[in-house]
# Entry
Amino acid sequence: MLDLTSAGLRRWTYETLIPAWIERTVDGRAGGYVEEFRPDGSPVAAPDRSALATARLAYTFAHAGRLSGSQAALEAARHGFALLLRTQEINGFVPKRFRPDGTASVARRDLYDLAFVLFASAHYHAASGEKAALGLADATMDLIERELTHPAGGYAEDDLGTLPRRQNPHMHLLEAFHALADLTGGQRWLDAADRIVRLAAGRFIDGNGSLGEFFDEQWQPVAGAPGRLREPGHQFEWVWLLHHHHRLTGWAKAVALAEGLYSFGLSRGLDAQPGRPPLVLDGIEVDGAVVQPTKLLWPQTEFIKALGARLEFLGDAEAGALLTRHVELLFRHFIDVPTGRWHNQLGADGAPLRIALPSRVLYHLFLCMAETLRVVDGTGTR
# Structure
């Protein structure tokens, strides 16, 4: 078992996890990153690249390089970010999928993916100082505002008008806006973040503190099971974001919203079956009934981040104890410590499922480790 002290976590993150994934994902021959691996660890070849995985991995390596001083991580980030810049130059925007030469293979303007282009731009600039990253952020935001702004509030899913509408892309836009506001202090990013949070308060989060996922054009929950679905991982991700929104803006209601989301997620979103570890479930209904008893890796990381936010901003000692416990559960049930690989999903019984491993999930695991170390060590370096 890994040494789970902050020193042990730091060594594992920067001496095992990040170097292993640089070696696995950076494709020096074809360009971009390897985006998927089979259960046996072998890479899945693809003729093109996704904006989502490219941006997430460029973010991860940039942030890791800045926090650790690793030139190898910064070079791995530059490898992917250069491809984002190339496809922006060729197409006038970053399309959903593109070939290694930058030409579009799927030319859709996708809100979820563009949120990560913004996020990667902020962190790549912070790590490298390269002004082109801020230029990409501004150009991407111009595109979102010009082509995806929706009359009922927020933004369209894409330039095809895809339905249902989702809270999820807006959540990741908020994350990106916070990163850009932290980096630049720009009012554009603070105002954009505030609009997202107020939309969430009015449309996404109900009076019981539960977060809806799928909506119609007017932000009404869609009919049937999708409209009742609650993803505990997203509940906790919003908790973390709302505490940081309060840090940036001072809007007190953000803390109250975070409290409701946390209470709902903590009371209903963890596996409470006797004999099973209290891992975060993939899906429940609005009344708490379990509809997806499986457990993905990423909701565990978001729970840990939420606990860290409560420890940092509220001084919540119980959250601190739960953080320590859940980091231990994460490593016990999901992580292969020597290789830096993980089980992407466990079955209801806790057994690992033999499914593909998307490299984009590294974003969740690394940010969880970086935030945990920052809060526990009290360094203040984001």
